[in-house]
Every structure is written in structure tokens, then in C-alpha cells.
Design a protein that fits this description.
Elements lengths: L5 H31 L5 H36 L1
Family: Belongs to the FliE family.
Subcellular location: Bacterial flagellum basal body
Main location: other
Length: 78
Amino acid sequence: MQTGSGADFGSMVAQGLQKLQNAQNTADDLAVQAATGKLTDVHDYIIAATEASLATSLTVAVRNRALDAFNEIMRMQA
């Protein structure tokens, strides 16, 4: 993978968002199974929910850093 290519960065962002969506879908599916009594081990749901929460927190942190960097670049041009 080339580190200087914008297409690679874009695909990395897209993959990260897809992984986030998958983690949230898994947690949602396990929550439904837990609510309907079909989940045999509630720990599976707790782990999936924690993973989805951490992935969301990471995504928000990356977004905030990207916005901060963009704003700093815009200030430099003014």
C-alpha cells in the first residue's frame, strides 16, 4: 500500500467505517437475541457492545483530529 496516495487514505477511511458498521450490527443482532431469549451467553453481547462502543469512540476521535487539522490548515492560508 502506498502511504502517499489519497485513494489509499480514502479506502482506509471507508474500511474503517465499514468495520464500525459491522461491529454495531453485530451488537444490535446480539441485543435482539438477548431480548428474545435466544442468546445463550450474555457475555457475547457485552463484548460486542463494548467493541462497538470503542470503535465509535475511536471514529469520533479521528474525525475530531481531522477537523482540527483542516481548521489549522485553513488558518494558515488566511
